[in-house]
């Protein structure tokens, strides 16, 4: 399918690896020029070089912490006028409700709620001015069904979801859509870190931890960054203009819900 976005320009956050890279790669395959961001310069530059060589698109790489004001300013200055925004940031660490204090919650809110909002605030006016734009926020399946040990993520990402629910409907008349993608477990560094926590807590191997988690997913496997990226690219396409303010699960059926 021709997504109709060749020649558009996208900012994809936290895109040197994992789900962010999956989204960047799918957009590059559709002919979209990219501004990539991550904290680690080495991995980011390698990803940028790979995408340039493979897809022949223009790729700008900005190594900065998108969750800080200084980092956002640096990225936005390099991004300039973009048509597509994909927000993404690593999730806060797991734990128990008794582990977290005010500072922990503020850090989670900064990374997983306030940073995407700040990016939208900066870039939505330009999209509205052109009468076309796409925003995809990478959140979590925990927005639909909370994961007890991810209380910080549950709180911050649900706050973002509430903001998007209203804002998406305000900008839709101007040809701009905002939607959220809710990943379950995908084969990324985040899954490896979560599995490592299970290994340490229960004294099992990495293979056992992975197999145990996969057994809880109806698809009986972890998702891939490529299939996640394909879903993101479709939401950014000309075919998705009637999808507004939605929360789309990509979790292999793990969230047990009728609606």
From TrEMBL:
Protein name in the entry:
SDR family oxidoreductase
Q: Would you say which domain of life the source belongs to?
A: Bacteria
Query: Of which family is this protein a member?
Result: Belongs to the short-chain dehydrogenases/reductases (SDR) family.
- Coiled-coil spans are none
Q: Whose protein is this, by species?
A: Pseudotabrizicola algicola
Q: Which Pfam families match?
A: adh_short_C2 (PF13561)
What the entry lists under PANTHER family is as follows:
3-OXOACYL-(ACYL-CARRIER-PROTEIN) REDUCTASE, NADPH-DEPENDENT REDUCTASE BACG
């Amino acid at each position: 399918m021709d997504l109709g976005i060749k020649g558009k320009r996208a900012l994809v956050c936290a895109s040197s690896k994992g789900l962010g890279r999956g989204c960047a790669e799918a957009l590059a395959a559709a002919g979209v020029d990219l501004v990539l961001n991550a904290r680690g310069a080495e991995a980011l530059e390698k990803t940028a070089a790979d995408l340039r060589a493979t897809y022949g698109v223009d790729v700008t790489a900005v190594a900065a912490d998108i969750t800080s004001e200084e980092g956002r300013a640096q990225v936005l200055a390099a991004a300039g006028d973009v048509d597509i925004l994909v927000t993404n940031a690593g999730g806060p660490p797991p734990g128990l409700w008794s582990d977290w204090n005010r500072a922990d919650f503020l850090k989670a809110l900064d990374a997983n709620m306030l940073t995407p909002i700040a990016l939208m605030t900066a870039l939505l006016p330009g999209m509205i001015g052109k009468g076309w734009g796409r925003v995809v926020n990478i959140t979590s399946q925990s927005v639909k069904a909370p994961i007890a040990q991810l209380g910080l993520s549950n709180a911050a990402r649900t706050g973002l979801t509430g903001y998007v629910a209203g804002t998406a409907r305000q900008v839709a008349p101007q040809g701009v859509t905002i939607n959220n993608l809710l990943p379950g477990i995908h084969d990324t560094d985040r899954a490896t870190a979560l599995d490592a926590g299970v290994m340490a807590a229960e004294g099992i191997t990495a293979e056992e931890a992975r197999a145990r988690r996969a057994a809880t997913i109806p698809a009986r496997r972890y998702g891939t960054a490529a299939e996640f990226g394909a879903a993101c690219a479709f939401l950014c396409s000309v075919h998705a203009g009637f999808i507004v303010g939605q929360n789309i699960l990509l979790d292999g059926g793990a969230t047990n819900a009728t609606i």
